[in-house]
Amino acid sequence: MRAIALHQYLPIDNPDALIDVELPTPEPGPGELRVRVEAISVNPVDVKVRAPKPKVEATPRVLGWDAAGVVDAVGPGVKLFQPGDAVYYAGSIARPGTNSEFHIVDERIVGHKPRSLSFAQAAALPLTSITAWELLFERLGIPRSKAPSQDTLLIVGGAGGVGSIAIQLARKLAGVTVVATASRPESTSWCESMGAHHVVDHRQSLVPQLQKLAPQGVRYIASLTATDSHFPELVELAAPFGHLGLIDDPSKPLDIGSMKRKSLSLHWELMFTRPLYEAADPLEQHRILNRVAELVDAGTLKTTMTQDFGPITAANLRRAHAAIESGRTVGKIVLSGYPSGHE
C-alpha cells in the first residue's frame, strides 16, 4: 500500500522529511477496522512529532491523526461497523498514523462519517471536534444548555482547528457568551463566521479588552495556543472559582500558585488519553463523533476545512506541514485521494 513516512526527523524544507513509501497492507486484529483512507487532515501534533531531533527510525514511521474513509475489513469481535461503512476518526498517537492508503484503528474511537460532507470535509473534523468537546464539556464543565447564561467563555486562538469547532460547539450547544482571540482581518472574520459573539486581538493586552466585555470576570477559558505568554493575564481575567483549560505545551512552568487567591482550577485536555488508557472509556469518542456527525447533518455544525492541498503525497504533505509551522493557517488543511496510475 502507499504511505507517507519518515526515517529521520528533519526540517520540513528537506525533501527527505516526509517521503512516499510502499508498505505491506495491514490486517485488522480483534476489535479493529481496516479503513481505506480517502482523506486526511494535518494538525499541530503532526508537526510536533515530526520536529527535527537526533533520532533515526529503523523502519518507516507513518504519522497522521485524522482520517475519513471506508471500512475495508473488520477483525474478530467487531460490533459497531461493517465493510462498506463510511467513517471518520482521529486514531491513536501510540499506533501507526493515518497517512497511508489503508489504516488499522480500534472501532471504539471511530464514528460514522457525516452523510452531508465529502470525505475531505469530514477529515477536517475528528481530532479537533473530540478535543473541543472534551475540553468544553468534560474538562471545563460548561453546561450543555441553550438557556442564556451570564458566563463568558474565552477561546485563545479561535481561528485554528480546535478553536474553529470550539466556537461552534459553545455557540450552538451552550448559553455562554463566546469571545475568541485573533490577530489578522482574515482570522477575525473566520472566528465571526464560526459564531463568536466577540473577537479580541491577542497581540494586544487581553485584560482591557475583556474587562469591557466581561467586567464580572471570565468563568471559562480555553487556552489553545501561547498559554505561557498569556497565563498571567488569563489568571487576572478569570472570575473567582473559574476554570482554565489548555491543550498546548507551555515552554516554561506556569505559576499555578497565582491561581490560588481566586480558587481557580486548571484542566489539561489531550484527546489521545482515551485511546491510550482502557480505564478512560475509549467508546466515548465513538459517541462524540457520532453526535458531531448528527449535528453536522442537521446543519448545526459545519466543516472547518479551508484548504484541500490535493492528493495524499509526500510533497503535498510537506507543504501542509510547512503551512502549519507558519502559524498563520485558518481552519483546517486536508489532503484527499491518491494520484491515479498506481498499480
SSE blueprint and pairings:
Blueprint: E1 2-9, E2 19-22, E3 32-42, H1 44-50, E4 53-62, E5 67-74, E6 86-89, E7 102-106, E8 110-112, H2 119-123, H3 126-139, E9 152-156, H4 161-173, E10 177-182, H5 185-194, E11 198-201, H6 206-213, E12 218-223, H7 227-237, E13 238-246, E14 265-268, H8 273-276, H9 283-297, E15 305-308, H10 314-326, E16 332-336
Parallel strand pairs: 9-10, 9-12, 10-11, 12-13, 13-14, 15-16
Antiparallel strand pairs: 1-2, 1-4, 3-5, 3-7, 3-16, 5-6, 6-8
Helix pairs in contact: 3-4, 3-9, 6-7
What is the assigned CATH homologous superfamily of the largest domain? Medium-chain alcohol dehydrogenases, catalytic domain
Give the biggest sheet.
Answer: 7 strands, mixed
Could you please say which CATH topology of the largest domain applies here? Quinone Oxidoreductase, Chain A, domain 1
Content of β-strand: 25-35%
Kindly state the mean pLDDT as a whole number?
97
Q: CATH class of the largest domain, anyone?
A: Alpha Beta
Number of helices: 10
Order of helices and strands: EEEHEEEEEHHEHEHEHEHEEHHEHE
Number of domains: 2
Say how many strands there are.
16
**Secondary structure category:** alpha/beta
The gross shape turns out to be globular
Termini separation comes to 10 Å
Helix share, percent:
25-40%
The radius of gyration computed from the alpha-carbon positions, rounded to a whole number of angstroms, is 20 Å
Task: Identify the CATH architecture of the largest domain.
Answer: Alpha-Beta Complex
The low-pLDDT segments are: none
